[in-house]
Amino acid sequence: MTGTLGDLLRRAADTASVPQLDLDGLLGEADKRQRRRRLAIAAVAAGAVAATAAGSVLVTRADPKTQQPPPAAPPSSTQSSNVAVAPHGARPLVYADGSTVHVGDATVEAHDPVAFIDATDDGAVYEAAYDGTLWFTDGKTSSVIGTTAFTAAPTAHSGVVTTGDSGSLVVWGDASIGENESPVEFVVYDTSRREEVARIPFTEPGEVDQVLYVDEGQVYVNPDPSTPGCWAIDVQDLHPCKHPHLFRFDVASGRTTKITLADLDAHLGTRARRFAVPAGGDLDLGARPGFSQVGQRLVHTDTDGDPTVLSTASGDEVRLRLPRGYRAPGGEGSGGMIAVSQWLDDDHVVLWADDGGGDLPAKEGDLLVCRLPDGTCRVAVPRSSRPYVVP
């Protein structure tokens, strides 16, 4: 089923039945829900409790009163005199300390301390201060690319933009148009071309549409959960429908197609830079696997802190080991975490080992690069007296 997003939604509304709440079956359905493989989006389904328990973070909408025009001059760029990281394959390692943005072995100076950063194959998307202004840098030059409706907050920086684990697409809710600067459409920006390549209208102005996943050429969108129909994220989540749907937007053709959640799940199974979801587990598109240090091994743990087996999408078990004598900065009870920060290529991931120091995104810690085929990890960026912000 293809067409414009509005036409597809109208067809869905015409055929949708009115949800009925079966009180007698509610507990049974809730139990089934625990076993059903579904989308688990922390910011929607669990709020602040899940943000604390699972290492996810909250998203706040930019306050129009605090929005300021972007700086007139771009930041300066220099080559690092102490090269700690070299790009690996398709994507450079990116992070920020203070106002310094690191892209591989190059650095760029932002106009304010960096509050948010994310990676594409071509460089880094970042927000300095908390005004919603988005910048892109390839490590040589920087430029403003737009204004996001979901700005980085002092204690969180998730949801500002959505990128894929490979490719050049960046997607965000546009705050530059719409009443009271509420987003009415998504911007799709290509960092390899340094230009906007598409816009995806929201279900209706003022609705809460969400980007679920981005790859090299498609954007996967869930309409507002209250939209009539059966959706991946739905207001009837405690009494779920049998065949959840979402929309796939193809950037090259501009065509929107209604697909099932099972279609997306199958597509994810073909992606090299994905970890497998355990049988019966939740399909959390924003999940960043976490680990605990046991001797010199890294043991994958679930959100309850229990050890579990982690595999790549190809089925290979992930077995990681740390350099001899290495100790992660966060001791027991510190709140410190060791979690995947980004993919560099199909074989290498970056782990962020932080000290758990407070609620701010910037924390002290080490960035490690781990090679999945043999499990070896090395410290790529050692901790310093300045905290880091990572993807």
Topology:
Elements: E1 2-3, H1 5-15, H2 26-35, H3 42-45, H4 47-54, E2 60-61, E3 77-79, E4 94-97, E5 100-103, E6 106-109, E7 114-120, E8 123-128, E9 133-137, E10 142-147, E11 150-151, E12 162-163, E13 169-173, E14 185-190, E15 195-201, E16 210-214, E17 218-222, E18 245-250, E19 255-260, H5 261-268, E20 290-294, E21 297-301, E22 320-321, E23 338-343, E24 348-354, E25 365-371, E26 376-381
Structure overview:
InterPro entries: Quino_amine_DH_bsu. The chain is built from five helices and 26 strands. It has 391 residues and is mainly beta. It has one domain (2-381). The strands form six sheets. It has a seven-stranded antiparallel β-sheet with strand order 22-21-20-23-24-25-26, with no helix packed on it. Strand 4 and strand 5 form a beta hairpin. The chain is globular, with a radius of gyration of 21 Å.
Class inferred from helices and paired strands: mainly beta
Strand fraction equals 25-35%
Number of strands: 26
Q: What is the overall pLDDT average?
A: 77
What is the gyration radius calculated from CA atoms? Answer: 21 Å
Strands ordered across the widest β-sheet: 22-21-20-23-24-25-26
Distance between the termini: 35 Å
How many structurally independent domains? 1
- Provide a count of the helices: 5
Biggest sheet architecture: 7 strands, antiparallel
Q: Which stretches are poorly predicted, pLDDT < 50 over at least 5 residues?
A: 13-89
* Helical fraction: 10-25%
Name the overall outline.
globular
